[in-house]
Design a protein that fits this description.
The chain is of the alpha+beta class. Helices cover 47% and strands 13% of the residues. It is elongated and about 90 Å long. The termini are far apart.
């Protein structure tokens, strides 16, 4: 007992790796055939075991990176549809949340209510600058999430694509407003 440094108590064991004395259930059971039905446990605690397993994983990955790349590709292919669906659901949820915060699915300028024709517009025509300042984001997908994360900035509004484009081409004022003779930015 003394020479293999196991404590006398059967409910505890000293980890061969870190040397800590821990309850037996912090050591993984051994499932070897000839130990079936008996409570044999490993001599390395679960935490040390995990650290060692991670190191081994890194070593194997370093030895054969291509194998891991192939495995990753297989996983990507296998779960593609599922991951797309999750993304789409999250995107739709964020989109609904953002439009609700900016007055719902209705163009601030012309009153268009068809959701597929509506977009979030930078009131001050500073979208390009905004994107420059936030490089690295994938805006097509992340703009709504960004808006939520940043507490719904007040310089955004709901516009339809027509008004958005017209406003863009007329230096910040939609042709609708120009026609009305109004000079205020919608
Ligand atoms: Zn340990
Ligand atoms: Zn409009
Ligand atoms: Zn308009």
């Amino acid at each position: 007992m003394a020479d293999n440094q196991q404590p006398s108590s059967q409910s505890e064991r000293k980890c061969k790796s870190c040397g800590d004395v821990k309850p037996l259930d912090e050591f993984a059971p051994v499932y070897a055939k000839n130990s079936r039905g008996q409570n044999y446990r490993q001599h390395t605690c679960l935490i040390c075991h995990r650290i060692k397993a991670a190191a081994k994983e890194r070593r194997l990955r370093g030895n054969d990176p291509q194998r891991y790349r192939d495995a990753l590709k297989r996983w990507r292919d296998r779960t593609l549809d599922e991951r797309k669906a999750v993304k789409k659901t999250r995107y739709e949820k964020h989109k609904a949340q953002v439009f609700a915060a900016y007055g719902g699915f209705i163009c601030t300028c012309c009153g268009e209510t068809e959701p597929t024709m509506l977009t979030i517009d930078h009131k001050l025509e500073d979208g390009a600058e905004f994107r420059r300042n936030n490089r690295g984001e994938r805006w097509s997908y992340n703009f709504y999430a960004w808006i939520i994360r940043n507490g719904f900035p007040p310089d955004l509004q709901v516009l339809c694509y027509n008004c958005n484009l017209s406003k863009h081409r007329n230096g910040g004022i939609c042709a609708h407003k120009l026609r009305e003779g109004s000079t205020t930015i919608p």
